[in-house]
């Protein structure tokens, strides 16, 4: 193998590693949490609240709350630097729930509500395959607003 071909392969591999690292660095800036605030936005304490913070410099697309059984579209687009929340009737089992989104490059990410684990594509522990949950019927678990 000529040196120039080997150099090109090493350069491509280094670029891919750097790009994956940069994408992960963006994704860790997305924070999610489940809160219970007794009288927020006119909702009582029996509702569950899911908060999403986009700390990245780019918009998030297709932001959904997913559980083992349901998928609810929270935001079509969540702009950079925005923190927002949605209310849901009754409790949400945080051990089996995650917030899923698509980044600027089209990659799917998920952050688990209970352990705050960050996942890129693939399987979300306790919930299932990310592709299956994002293709599920949206708004099966509608916000109560």
Could you please describe the fold and organization of this structure?
- The protein is built from two helices and ten strands, in the order αββββββββββα.
- The protein is 21% helix and 38% strand.
- Strand 7 and strand 8 (118-120) form a beta hairpin.
- The chain has helices spanning 3-27, 130-135, and strands at residues 30-35, 47-54, 60-67, 71-78, 83-89, 97-102, 108-112, 118-120, 123-124, 128-129.
- It has one domain (3-135): Immunoglobulin-like (Sandwich).
- The protein has 145 residues and is an alpha+beta fold.
**What count of domains describes the coordinates?**
1
As residue ranges, the low-confidence spans are: 133-145
| CATH topology term | Immunoglobulin-like
CATH class descriptor: Mainly Beta
- Approximate shape: elongated
Total DSSP E strands: 10
* Mean pLDDT over all positions: 75
CATH architectural group: Sandwich
The portion of residues assigned to helices is 10-25%
Question: What is the helix tally?
Answer: 2
| Strand order in the sheet with the most strands | 4-3-6-7-8
Q: Which radius of gyration do the C-alpha atoms yield?
A: 18 Å
The major sheet is characterized as:
5 strands, antiparallel
In percent, how much strand structure appears in the residues? 35-45%
